[in-house]
Structure prediction request, 271 residues.
Amino acid sequence: MSVNRPEGRGRFKPAKRSLGQNFLKDANIARKIVDALGIQPGDNVLEIGPGRGALTRHILDRQPGRFMVLEKDDELAAVLSEQYPSIEIVQGDALAFPWNSLAPEDGWKIVGNLPYNIASPLMWDIVSQSRFACAVFMVQLEVGQRLRAPSGGRDYGALSVWVQSHALVDLLFKVPPQVFHPQPKVTSAVMRFILRPNTFEAKASKALAETLHMCFQQRRKQLSTILKSKGIGGIVDLLAGIGVEPSQRPETLAPEQFLELSNRLQNQFGS
Ligand code: SAM
Prediction:
């Protein structure tokens, strides 16, 4: 039986589909992703899912201060720690990482070619739980389009509102499937996130999450129907106060209107 080992990398096991392992094999694209983070010597950098080090080596070239990586695959984490002894390697699940432990004053720059299966919940947590200086993530193009979708369209949903309420989002460039091994079925997109200056109190954050959940679970319904089904009273006045008609559907509300709505609903959701 022959095992497909790209570029003769005998030390690596075959890619694990369950961990979303599609390794980037184009050094120019890797460099371009790292460039987008604007690392200056001494900056603190955190990489999610370093894998076989496609981005890692370009980050090291920029002489970061602290350089931490989160890798779930214990075999890859072991190879990386041998190869790059100066890096802080955290072997574990990025979804379980305490994002609020990154001190805002340390100006963390976060980067990752994210595993497709966890990209959306991970970005949800990172933009809302940490105060980073800049983040650059490669995601599936379809997810990238949802992240920066304007209101009114099919791509616009809870993730769009949540992420846009916390950060300015840019799609920097697209990446074709051919530059990965194994090749994914879809095109990818490199996205950059800069946090907005406003921060959310825990109660306001919870209210926004619950409002989005409530509204986008029933996105085809009119807002008045959705709110009524939750036992919320004074709906016409409530919506008029934020410039929204009772017959509007959730996807027509701008992120600021969702924020207004969730602020007014805060007490309905408890503490
Ligand atoms: N950065 C490498 C590259 O560009 O070639 C690898 C990218 S690959 C798409 C995703 C990486 O994330 C893999 O190394 C995988 O093992 C790791 N990974 C998957 N799930 C993870 C999780 N929950 N937490 C941390 N790392 C994870």
